[in-house]
Specification:
The structure holds three protein chains of three kinds.
Chain A (H helix, E strand, L loop, with lengths): L6 H11 L12 E7 L6 H10 L6 E2 L2 E9 L4 H14 L4 E4 L3 H14 L3 E3 L17 E3 L4 H14 L4 E7 L2 H16 L3 E8 L7 H9 L4 E5 L6 H9 L5 E3 L7 H7 L7 E4 L14 H16 L5 H14 L2 H4 L8 H12 L4 E3 L2 E3 L15 E6 L2 E5 L1
Parallel strand pairs in A: 1-3, 1-4, 4-5, 5-6, 7-8, 7-9, 9-10
Antiparallel strand pairs in A: 2-3, 11-14, 12-13, 14-15
Helix pairs in contact in A: 2-11, 3-4, 5-6, 8-9
Chain B lengths: L2 H4 L1 H13 L8 H26 L7 H18 L8 H19 L6 H19 L9 E2 L5 E2 L2 E2 L3 H23 L2 H18 L4 H27 L1 E2 L6 H14 L4 H26 L5 H16 L5 H5 L28 E12 L2 E12 L3 E5 L6 H8 L7 E6 L2 E2 L5 H6 L2 E3 L12 H6 L10 H5 L4 H17 L15 H14 L4 E5 L7 H16 L3 E5 L3 H7 L2 E6 L2 E6 L1 H6 L1 H11 L1
Parallel strand pairs in B: 7-12, 7-13, 10-11, 11-12
Antiparallel strand pairs in B: 1-4, 2-3, 5-6, 5-8, 8-9, 13-14
Helix pairs in contact in B: 3-7, 3-9, 3-10, 3-11, 4-5, 4-6, 4-9, 5-9, 7-9, 8-9, 10-11, 11-12, 18-19
Chain C lengths: L2 H32 L6 H16 L5 H20 L6 H25 L6 H12 L2 H10 L7 H23 L13 E4 L2 E4 H23 L1 H11 L1 H6 L4 H23 L9 H15 L5 H21 L4 H7 L1 H11 L9
Antiparallel strand pairs in C: 1-2
Classes of the chains: A alpha/beta, B alpha/beta, C mainly alpha.
Chain lengths: 387, 592, 346
C-alpha cells in the first residue's frame, strides 16, 4: 500500500488498477463539498482541516476534482445549510464535514436523504453506528474514543492503576470521552473516583483539582485540548498530586510540552499514528503517508500541522478511492455515480492513511483497528512511543 | 395596522406571488432552502417584534424557547415514536409553560434588568440542554423523522416551504390582529405608556406576560419546525449567540413592525449567504471574514437607519387605510352614577411619608357627586402626591380614602379605575406612534372583555367596533373629532391634554381626576374646556381638579381645597378662598 | 470539604473575582457615561493577552496593523460626517494623531518584536496598541449613535463584538496562547500555595481600583465623567463635551481590558474568543450592582468569583448554570429596589 504515499501516487495507483475500465469520455468533474468550522468554538479543528484541502488530489482517473469549502461557524444549522447549498448548487458527489459532533450528526441525515457519500471528521460512534439504511452513506475518519480509551485502560491495568480521577471539558469532547471511560474502565476493574468538568475558557480549575486529589486516585485522566490541558495538570501538581497523569490526543501539539514544562513530564496519551509519525517503526503502514502529509502541510501553510487536519486528509484518501470504479457506472453529478462511489468506498480494504489503516465493510464504516492508535509518553520534554 | 383588512387584494396578490416562487422552473433549490430558513427565523423575529419592538421588553432568550419546542418534539419522536404532527401541542405546551414560569420572574424586571435577565437564563438554559442526559447532552439528538403529508415526506425544501410559510403567514395575521385589538392597544402602551394604561385598568404584568408567552410560543413553533427540517437538535442553535442573532433580525428589520421581523430575517440570512459567496472572491482568502463584515454592516445599518429597514420598504407599499369607525355600533353600557349631592370621595387624614419627609400631612377633604372640586396650592404643596394617593400610584402611609363608601387606599391603579375613577396626567402620557383614536380607546379598556385569543381570531369585532365608536364619540365631544387618525405625537401639547380627557371619559367615570388640564392651552381652548367640564358636571359627573390657572379654577369649581407644605390650610367655596387671609398669605399673596 | 480546601477555593474565587471586578467596573463606567452596554469588553481582554503573547513569541501582532486601519477609517469617516464644518486644521490633527502615530507605533513594533523584547517593554507596547482602540471603536461605532436608545446601542455593541471577534481570529488564529507570568514564583503561606501571578492580579486590581477612585474623586476629568454619568444633558449644558467623555470612557475600558488580559494570560490559555465568557461574568457582577455602584460591583464580582469556585467544587458540570442562574433572584431584588424606569427609556 506504499502507493498511497501521497496524492500523486494515489492517483497513479488507482489509475493503474483501473486501467481499461475508466471511460475516457467522462468529462464532468467530481465535486467534493466540505463544510468545516473555520470559526466558532471548533475553529482550532476546522482551520487545519480547511488547510489540508489543498493537499488532496486535484485530478483522479482523468477527472478533475473540484473542492468547495464552506465555513459553518461550528453551528449545526449552518452546516446543514452549507451541505444543502453544495448538494443543490454544486452537485457535489462527496460530502465531508464537520469539525464538531452535533453538526456532523446532522449531516448524516442530509447525506442519506440526498444519497451522497459522506465522511465525518469526529470520533463519535453515532456517525456510523448502528449501521442502518441512513448510515449506509456515512463513513468516519477519526478513531472511536473507545479505541483510544481502551488503549489507556490497558496501560492502566498493566501498570497497576486501580482508580482514576476524570477531569474533562463540559462540551461534547469531554462528554464523548466520559461516556466511553465510564463504560470501559469499570469493565477492566478501574474505579472512577471523581468526575469533574471545566470550560475551555475557565481561568482556573483549582476546585476541580482539589476534589479529585481528595479522592486519592492512582491516576488522573484529563480530557482537554491544546495548552488548556496544561492548566488542570499544573493545578494537580501544585496540589501535590505526583502520580501518573493521562491525557488525550487533544494535547498533541508541542506547545503543550513547551507551556507545561516539568509539570507535564511523564504524561501519557493515546493518539493516531500521525501524531508520532517520526517515532513510528518503518514497518508501520501509516508512517510514510503521515510523514509526507506533515511535510507537505507545513510547507504549504508555514505552520505546524495538527492531527485534526489529517482527518480531512484521510477522508479524502478513502472517499476518493472509489472514483475510478464509479466512473464506469455513471457520470459525476448523477445518483448512479454517487451510489457506485459509495459501494466502492465500502469495499476498500487496507487503505493506509495518516490516522491508521482503513478497511471498510457493509457493517463497519469506521474501518480502523488497533493500528490506528499509539501511546505516547512525554519524557524529558519529548515524545516517546510506548510499546 | 389593519394591513390585511385594507388592501386585501394587493396583499393577497403578494402572498400568491410568493407562494408561486417554488413552482417557477429554474429557481435554484438552494434559494428555496434559504427561504425555508428565513421562514423559521421570521417566526421568532415576529415574536420579538411584539415583545421588544412593540412591548418594549428586550429578550435575548428567544433561542432558548426554540430549544424547548425543538427538544420536546425531538424526545417524543425519537424516543416515544410520536408522529411529528402529534408533537406540536406538546412542543407548544412545554414552551408555553417554560415561558410562563420564566416570564413570571422576567417581566417584573424593570429597565435594563430585563434584557440582562434574559441573557442570564438564556445562557443557563443552553448549559442545561448540554448537560441533560435524555436530551443527548452536547451531541444532541439526531435522526429525527421528517414531516410526512399523506405519505409524502416533506424532506424536500420545496415541500416544507409551504408548511413553514403557512406558519409564518398565520403568525403575521394573528400578530397583526392581536395588535389591532383591545389587548393589542394595551401591549402597544407598554412602551412608554404603561402608567397611563394601568390607570385605565390594564393589568400591566399580565399583559407583559401574555406578550412574553406569545413570543415564546412563536419561537417554540419555529423550534418544532426546525427539529424536523434539520432532523437533528443540539444545544448550539439555542444558545445566547442565536438569541442575539434573532434580536438583531428584529432590530435590523424594524422592531416596531410585524413584517419588519420577516424583513430582518430575510436580510440577515441572504446577507450571510452572499457574504459567503462573495467574500472569498473579493478578499482572496476564504472563511473568517464573514463575521467581521457582518458585524461592520450591522453597525452601519444602525447608523444609517435607526428604526430598521422596514420603514424604508413601507414607503413602497400601499398605505394602510384609516381605521373605520362604525357609527352604528351599539353604545357601550353605562355605569350607574351616584345620586347628585351624595358623598362620593372622602379623604380622611391621608398621610404620605417619604423617609423623614412628610409630603402629605393628614389631609382630609370630600368630593360630592356632581361637583367640581379644585385642589390648589403652590409648587411643592403636595397636590401631585395627593393625586397619586387617590389614583393608587402611591400607597398612603396612613389615613383612609373612601370612595362610594368603600376604602380604596392601597388598591392598585387598575382596581381604582375599575371603580369608576379616571384620570389625566400632568405630563401627557399618550403613545406617540399610536393614533389618537386608539390612544383614547385604551380608556374604555375595562368596558369590554375581548381576550387575546378572540382578538387574534377576529372574534372581537363587535366589541371592538363599540369601543372605537365610544372613543370617536368622546374625541368628537372634546373637539378633536377631526384628528381621530393622526398619531398622537403629531398634535400640539394642549390638544394632547384634551385627548387625555377624552381617554378618561371613555372609562365612563363617576369621578374624573384632572391634573393641570388647562396648562398649555390657549384662551379659547380654555373656554371650551371649561364649558366641557361644566357640561359633564351637569350630567352628574364629579371632577377633582389640580390646576394652577386661578382664573380657570375660580370660575369653574364649586369647592376648593388649598394645600401648602403638605397640609390643608383652607377649604371652602371659591369666593371664600379668594378672601381667606391664610391662603392669600401663603399662596395668592405673592402673585396678586 | 475541609478548611484547607475552603481556603484554596476562597483564594481561587478572589483571584477570579478580582478580574471580574475590573471588567465589571469598566462596564459600569462605560454604561454610565455612554449608555452602551459594552459587550466587546471581553475582546480587549483577549487582545491584551494575545498581543502580549505574540510579542513574547517575537512576532508582530495583527493589532498593530489594525490600529493603523482603524485610525485611517476614523479620520476618513469623521471628515465625511462633518464635511461642512470641519477645518483643515482638525483634519491635520486627526492625520497626525490617528494615522501617523499608529504608523510609527507599527514601525516600532516591527523593529522591536523580532528581538523578543523584555516583558515590561512588551507590556507597554501592548497597552500602547490596545488603549487607542477604545476611543477609535467609540468614534467608529457609537459616536454617531450617541443619542439612540439603549437597545440600539446594545445591538451596535453586538455588531462590534462580531467584528472584533472575527478580527481576533484572523490575527491570532484559533489556537490559544499563554503569556509569561509577571511573577513566576509560588509562595507558601501556611497550608496555602499562592502563585506570584495571583498576587500580581490582586495587586494590579487594587491599584487600578484605587487609581479609578482617585481619578473620579480628585481630577477634573474624572468629575466631568461622573457628571456626564449622572446627567448627560446637564453635563453638556455646563460645557462638558459628551463626545470626549465617551472617548475617555472607552480608552479606560480598553486599558483595563488589556491589563486584565495580560494578568490572566499566564494563568490560563487565552483564545481569540475567550474574552466573551470572562466579560459576561464581569457583567453578572455589574448587573448585580445595578450597573451603577462601583464598590457594589467589586463586591458582587468577588461574590461571583467565590460562587464559581465553590460551585466548581460541588457540581463542576453545572457551574455556568449556577453562576448565570444566581443572577435572576439578584435581578428581581434589584428591580424591586429600583424605581420604575420603564418610562424613562422612551
Amino acid at each position: 500500500m506504499a502507493g498511497y504515499l501521497r496524492p500523486k501516487f494515489l492517483h497513479m495507483g488507482l489509475t493503474a488498477a483501473l486501467l481499461g475500465l475508466a471511460p475516457a469520455a467522462a468529462l464532468a468533474q467530481v465535486n467534493v463539498g466540505i463544510t468545516v468550522s473555520q470559526t466558532g468554538p471548533a475553529a482550532a479543528l476546522g482551520i487545519p482541516q480547511k488547510n489540508s484541502v489543498a493537499q488532496l488530489p486535484k485530478e483522479l482517473a482523468g477527472q478533475k476534482i473540484e473542492y468547495i469549502v464552506l465555513d459553518d461557524a461550528t453551528d449545526p444549522t449552518k452546516a446543514v445549510a452549507n451541505a444543502r447549498k453544495m448538494i443543490t448548487e454544486n452537485k457535489i458527489d462527496i460530502l465531508i464535514g464537520s469539525s464538531a459532533t452535533p453538526a456532523t450528526l446532522a449531516l448524516v441525515d442530509v447525506a442519506a436523504e440526498t444519497k451522497t457519500p459522506f465522511c465525518g471528521m469526529v470520533p463519535t460512534g453515532g456517525v456510523v453506528r448502528p449501521m442502518d439504511e441512513k448510515r449506509k452513506w456515512a463513513f468516519k475518519a477519526p478513531q472511536d474514543d473507545a479505541l483510544l480509551a481502551d488503549a489507556l485502560a490497558d496501560h492502566m491495568v498493566a501498570n497497576g492503576v486501580k482508580s482514576v480521577g476524570f477531569i474533562g471539558y463540559t462540551d461534547g469532547y469531554g462528554q464523548g470521552w466520559l461516556d466511553e471511560v465510564q463504560k470501559i474502565f469499570p469493565a477492566k476493574g478501574i474505579k472512577i473516583t471523581a468526575v469533574e468538568r471545566f470550560q475551555r475558557t475557565d481561568t482556573s480549575v483549582t476546585a476541580q483539582g482539589l476534589k479529585i486529589v481528595s479522592t486519592n486516585p492512582d491516576a488522573v485522566l484529563i480530557v482537554a485540548s491544546g495548552t488548556v490541558a496544561v492548566m488542570p495538570q499544573k493545578t494537580l501538581r501544585e496540589q501535590g498530586f505526583t502520580k501518573t497523569v493521562y491525557q488525550t490526543a487533544g494535547i498533541s501539539t508541542m506547545e503543550f510540552v513547551r507551556v507545561g514544562g516539568k509539570d507535564v513530564e511523564g504524561t501519557i496519551f493515546p493518539a493516531g499514528p500521525v501524531i508520532a509519525a517520526d517515532l513510528l517503526p518503518d514497518s508501520h503502514p501509516s508512517k510514510k503517508v503521515s510523514l509526507a502529509y506533515i511535510k507537505e502541510y507545513e510547507a504549504i501553510n508555514k505552520s505546524p500541522y495538527a492531527g485534526f487536519g489529517a482527518h480531512l486528509y484521510d477522508c479524502g484518501l478513502f472517499m476518493l478511492s472509489g472514483v475510478g470504479a464509479a466512473l464506469t457506472k455513471g457520470k459525476p453529478g448523477t445518483p448512479e455515480f454517487r451510489a457506485a462511489l459509495r459501494d466502492g468506498i465500502e469495499n476498500q480494504k487496507e487503505v493506509a492513511a495518516t490516522h491508521g489503516v482503513y478497511s471498510f465493510s457493509p457493517t463497519d464504516h469506521a474501518g480502523l483497528d488497533k493500528r490506528a492508535r499509539v501511546l505516547i509518553k512525554v519524557v524529558n520534554g519529548k515524545w516517546t512511543l510506548l510499546p | 395596522m389593519g394591513l390585511f383588512s385594507s388592501n386585501r387584494a394587493v396583499w393577497l396578490g403578494l402572498i400568491l406571488a410568493f407562494a408561486a416562487i417554488p413552482l417557477i422552473p429554474g429557481i435554484p433549490d438552494f434559494w428555496i432552502t434559504l427561504w425555508d430558513y428565513i421562514g423559521l427565523y421570521s417566526l421568532v423575529a415576529i415574536g420579538l417584534v411584539l415583545l421588544t419592538g412593540v412591548g418594549g421588553m428586550t429578550s435575548f432568550g428567544q433561542a432558548a424557547f426554540c430549544g424547548f419546542g425543538a427538544y420536546t418534539t425531538a424526545v417524543l419522536t425519537s424516543q416515544f415514536g410520536f408522529s411529528p404532527w402529534l408533537t406540536l401541542p406538546f412542543s407548544l405546551a412545554t414552551t408555553g409553560l417554560a415561558a410562563f414560569l420564566l416570564g413570571l420572574v422576567t417581566v417584573r424586571l424593570s429597565g435594563h434588568f430585563l434584557p440582562l435577565g434574559t441573557i442570564a437564563w438564556g445562557i443557563s438554559i443552553y448549559y442545561l440542554f448540554g448537560n441533560i442526559e435524555v436530551l443527548g447532552r452536547y451531541d444532541g439528538i439526531s435522526g429525527l423523522p421528517p414531516f410526512t403529508f399523506f405519505g409524502h415526506s416533506l424532506i424536500d425544501a420545496r415541500a416544507i416551504f409551504y408548511l413553514i410559510w403557512l406558519c409564518v403567514l398565520l403568525a403575521v395575521i394573528l400578530s397583526l390582529n392581536l395588535l389591532d385589538s383591545r389587548m393589542g392597544r394595551a401591549v402597544r402602551a407598554l412602551r412608554g405608556g404603561s402608567q397611563a394604561a394601568e390607570s385605565f385598568g390594564v393589568n400591566i404584568p399580565r399583559v407583559k406576560l401574555v406578550v412574553f408567552v406569545y413570543a415564546a410560543l412563536l419561537a417554540g413553533l419555529s423550534g418544532w419546525l426546525y427539529a424536523h427540517m434539520q432532523r437533528a437538535v443540539s444545544p448550539s442553535p439555542f444558545g445566547i449567540n442565536a438569541g442575539i442573532e434573532y434580536l438583531l433580525m428584529a432590530v435590523l428589520g424594524g422592531s416596531g413592525y410585524v413584517l419588519g421581523g420577516v424583513l430582518g430575517a430575510t436580510i440577515v440570512i441572504v446577507l450571510k449567504d452572499h457574504l459567503q459567496n462573495i467574500l472569498p472572491k473579493l478578499i482572496g482568502a476564504d472563511g473568517n471574514f464573514e463575521t467581521i463584515v457582518f458585524g461592520i454592516l450591522m453597525v452601519a445599518v444602525l447608523q444609517l437607519s435607526r428604526n430598521g429597514l422596514w420603514p424604508l420598504v413601507q414607503r413602497l407599499l400601499p398605505k394602510p387605510a384609516e381605521k373605520t369607525v362604525d357609527e352604528s355600533a351599539p353604545a357601550l353600557a353605562l355605569r350607574t352614577m351616584p345620586e347628585r349631592g351624595a358623598l362620593l370621595l372622602e379623604v380622611a387624614k391621608a398621610r404620605k411619608q417619604f423617609g423623614g419627609l412628610v409630603a402629605v400631612n393628614d389631609v382630609s377633604f370630600a368630593v360630592k357627586a356632581g361637583e367640581i372640586v379644585g385642589l390648589i396650592g403652590p409648587n411643592g404643596a403636595g397636590k401631585s402626591t395627593t393625586f397619586n394617593l387617590l389614583t393608587g400610584v402611591l400607597a398612603a402611609t396612613s389615613g383612609s380614602i373612601r370612595y362610594r363608601g368603600e376604602d380604596i387606599a392601597g388598591l392598585k391603579a387598575e382596581a381604582i379605575a375599575a371603580r369608576g375613577i379616571a384620570r389625566t396626567f400632568q405630563h401627557v402620557k399618550l403613545v406617540g406612534s399610536m393614533s389618537l383614536l386608539e390612544n383614547v380607546a385604551i380608556g374604555a379598556h375595562l368596558r369590554s372583555g375581548a381576550g387575546v385569543l378572540g382578538s387574534m381570531l377576529r372574534l372581537d369585532r363587535t366589541d371592538e367596533a363599540r369601543l372605537l365608536r365610544e372613543a370617536a364619540r368622546q374625541l368628537t365631544r372634546v373637539g378633536l373629532g377631526a384628528h381621530l387618525h393622526k398619531p398622537a405625537a403629531s398634535l400640539a401639547l394642549g390638544q394632547q391634554r384634551i385627548a387625555e380627557i377624552a381617554r378618561a371619559l371613555c372609562l365612563d367615570p363617576a369621578l374624573l381626576l384632572l391634573d393641570e388640564p388647562a396648562a398649555g392651552l390657549r384662551f379659547a381652548e380654555k373656554q371650551q374646556l371649561a364649558e366641557l367640564l361644566s357640561q359633564l358636571r351637569s350630567e352628574g359627573m364629579s371632577v377633582l381638579l389640580v390646576e394652577h390657572d386661578m382664573d380657570f379654577v375660580m370660575k369653574l369649581t364649586n369647592h376648593l381645597v388649598v394645600l401648602d407644605f403638605g397640609e390643608k390650610i383652607a377649604e371652602g367655596s371659591p369666593a371664600e378662598i379668594s378672601v381667606n387671609p391664610v391662603v392669600l398669605e401663603a399662596y395668592l399673596g405673592g402673585v396678586e | 470539604m475541609n478548611a484547607t480546601i475552603a481556603l484554596y477555593l476562597a483564594q481561587d474565587g478572589i483571584i477570579n473575582g478580582a478580574i471580574y471586578a475590573l471588567l465589571g467596573v469598566t462596564l459600569v463606567l462605560v454604561f454610565a457615561v455612554t449608555r452602551v452596554i459594552f459587550v466587546p469588553q471581553g475582546e480587549f481582554v483577549a487582545w491584551g493577552a494575545l498581543t502580549l503573547a505574540a510579542l513574547d513569541a517575537g512576532s508582530v501582532p495583527g493589532t498593530a496593523w489594525l490600529l493603523v486601519v482603524m485610525g485611517i477609517a476614523a479620520t476618513v469617516l469623521d471628515t465625511l460626517r462633518q464635511s461642512k464644518t470641519i477645518t483643515l486644521h482638525a483634519i491635520g490633527g486627526m492625520v497626525v494623531k490617528d494615522i501617523a502615530l499608529p504608523v510609527l507605533l507599527l514601525l516600532a513594533v516591527q523593529a522591536i518584536a523580532p528581538g523578543k523584547p523584555a516583558l515590561w517593554i512588551s507590556v507597554l507596547l501592548t497597552l500602547a496598541l490596545i488603549i487607542p482602540m477604545g476611543p477609535l471603536v467609540y468614534r467608529l461605532a457609537f459616536q454617531p449613535l450617541a443619542d439612540a436608545t439603549v437597545l440600539t446601542l446594545f445591538i451596535a455593541a453586538i455588531g462590534v463584538h462580531f467584528a472584533l471577534i472575527g478580527l481576533g481570529l484572523v490575527f491570532f488564529g484559533a489556537e490559544g496562547f499563554r503569556t509569561t507570568p509577571f511573577i513566576a514564583e509560588t509562595f507558601r503561606v501556611g497550608v496555602l500555595a499562592i502563585k506570584g501571578q495571583s498576587l500580581a492580579v490582586l495587586g494590579v486590581t487594587a491599584m487600578l481600583l484605587a487609581g479609578l477612585y482617585l481619578f473620579f474623586e480628585r481630577t477634573m476629568l474624572g468629575k466631568a465623567l461622573r457628571a456626564t454619568a449622572v446627567n448627560r444633558l446637564g453635563a453638556r449644558l455646563v460645557g462638558i463635551p459628551v463626545r470626549s467623555t465617551g472617548r475617555i470612557a472607552f480608552a479606560l475600558a480598553a486599558a483595563i481590558g488589556a491589563l486584565s488580559g495580560m494578568l490572566i494570560g499566564s494563568l490560563t490559555t487565552i483564545y481569540y474568543d475567550s474574552g466573551f465568557l470572562i466579560g459576561l461574568k464581569g457583567f453578572v457582577a455589574a448587573i448585580a450592582a445595578g450597573l451603577a455602584s462601583y464598590p457594589l460591583t467589586v463586591m458582587a464580582a468577588l461574590g461571583v468569583g467565590l460562587l464559581e469556585a465553590f460551585s466548581a467544587f460541588f457540581a463542576s458540570a453545572f457551574k455556568e448554570v449556577i453562576v448565570f442562574s444566581i443572577i435572576i433572584p439578584l435581578l428581581i431584588w434589584r428591580s424591586l429596589k429600583a424605581p420604575h424606569s420603564d418610562e424613562e427609556e422612551e
